[in-house]
């Protein structure tokens, strides 16, 4: 399975799709979708490889064995998950599309423009779905314009990993869960040593979504929002956006941040695992890499301004497409199974994710996994307070100028005031356009 950094969406496909007219075509099939004997066959494109694929194959086989009237045909769809948007766009245009596909959270709002995407709102009220048991960020990620369009597929969030040896060598106390962004900036500066080639921290600087989503916890913590209540303006064209950009600007000015200008952030993480970076905001997907590199690391929650913990979740989705009522119903039955306790914990532990459900996090199997995986507990705990980006179709028009502003701050170009003014002008103009 590709590491999460390889799967982070770069916004380019999103931007292209946002500029297209709605994915029109024949609405959901009037055909029931069942065969003469009542068997329903559904197609799933999961975009996974390696361990992710192996885990899904086992879960699909278990479901098919228990449900003789439903047959799930699961495959990658011929692409990895980071290319699924283009694959689905082409499939919808051709009229031959799967019943379930793995769609990145920020992409679902534009995919849901198609009338071929099923409305699952009638299903989520069923008691056995137990919709409120999913973490709020996971539910929000599959809800577009008040309608549920799929099931949660994967969820992660950001905390801070740190190198214990660098802290010890500098005589700096290890960070705790109760620290501030001012302390983070000061610590990054203190632990930067040009003579040794050591950086205090790192930040992706390609202007893509991996660069952008890391600043939202700062904005939320300061009372801002990504979009204001009208939906026609950004919600951080104020002190929340300014102070968040000032943090990034100061890291750049102090030359304490490794700004990775190449997409994928590979170099940034290599600097950390080589023992040349003190701290890095990251997600649970990186823990196996740290373990393999034999890094002496710890993990703590993100710093705050207010003292109230906040982080961002990056949920992805199992989006359901309408190929007939029987197929939609069968897809829901399978997704209920896939995301229920035993399978949820299997997917999380084997494929390197986090639980989708609150009840799963309380299972003994998950707790044991947390206890035996260094640094996993802060990520698991953060699910309770993580927020996610809004599922809006014009999100790329916010993400792109914000990414450009962050890169300027990292590279010492311009001021936070100027960067915020420019990005607000561009983003607000796009949001105000019908």
CATH architecture of the largest domain: 3-Layer(aba) Sandwich
Instruction: Let me know the largest β-sheet.
Output: 5 strands, mixed
So what's the overall shape? globular
* Unreliable segments of 5+ consecutive residues: 1-30
CATH class of the largest domain: Alpha Beta
Oligomer: single chain
N-to-C span: 39 Å
Number of domains: 2
Q: Could you tell me the radius of gyration in angstroms?
A: 22 Å
- Say which CATH homologous superfamily of the largest domain is assigned: Periplasmic binding protein-like II
- The total count of strands amounts to 16
Adjacency order of strands in the biggest sheet:
2-1-3-15-6
Whole-number average pLDDT?
A: 91
Class based on secondary structure composition and strand pairing: alpha/beta
Beta-strand content estimate: 5-15%
Q: Helical percent range?
A: 40-55%
Number of separate helices: 21
Question: Would you tell me which CATH topology of the largest domain applies?
Answer: D-Maltodextrin-Binding Protein, domain 2
